[in-house]
Amino acid sequence: MKPTVRSYGVGVRRGCQPVCPARISGQRRRKFRRDNSMPSIGHQLGELFLGAAPTVLLILLFYFILRALFFQPLLHVMAERDARTVGAQKAAEAAQAAAVEKVRQYREALKQARGKVYAEQETARKKLLDERAAQLKDARNKAAAEVGAAKERVAAELAGARSDVESTVAQLSTEIARRLLPTPPRPGAPEREAR
Predict the structure, then answer these.
(1) What is the pLDDT of residues 154-167, one digit of tens each?
(2) What pLDDT was estimated at residue 158?
(3) What is the pLDDT of residues 66-79, one digit of tens each?
(4) Cα 139–Cα 141–Cα 146 angle in degrees, nearest 5
(5) What are the sequence ranges of the domains in the chain?
(6) 13: Cβ–Cβ under 8 A, 6 or more apart, which residues?
(7) Are 23 and 13 in contact (CB under 8 A)?
(8) Would you tell me how many other CB atoms lie within 10 Å of the CB of residue 10?
(9) Model pTM?
């Protein structure tokens, strides 16, 4: 068996003495250069892409499967949730606007009802004051009539008492004078003793 020659550098054989590069034949030299020369970058990139192609294809296949089975339904659910959220917000805004309108209508109705109540109270108060004024006027008229009648009665009684007094004045004055004033003795009458 012939020992295999592997080159570990220029002019080095396995298990042998170093060989001078000048001794190596031209054909062997070309083979050495072809085997040991650095491949070009383009060649390296091509091999890299060829090695990565199955991985890329698997990733693309996995992407399309996930897109169809996971991402699209997820995006659909998220879009539906957003639509419902926006719809709920719009419904809440509409309900709030309706509530504000109801409150405004309620306040307006309450204001009108208060106005009616105040007007009715004012009418009732005015009516009551008018009735009191009429009752007071009637009472004053009755009192004035009674006072007038009493004055007339008193005047009539006074006039009656005056006429009685006037009619009895002469008689009373004679009686008073007779009792108070001593009577002069008459000529021929016995004298009276003074009391």
Answers:
(1) 988 888 888 888 88
(2) 87
(3) 999 998 999 999 99
(4) 90
(5) 7-37, 38-169
(6) 5, 6, 7, 19
(7) no
(8) 13
(9) 0.36
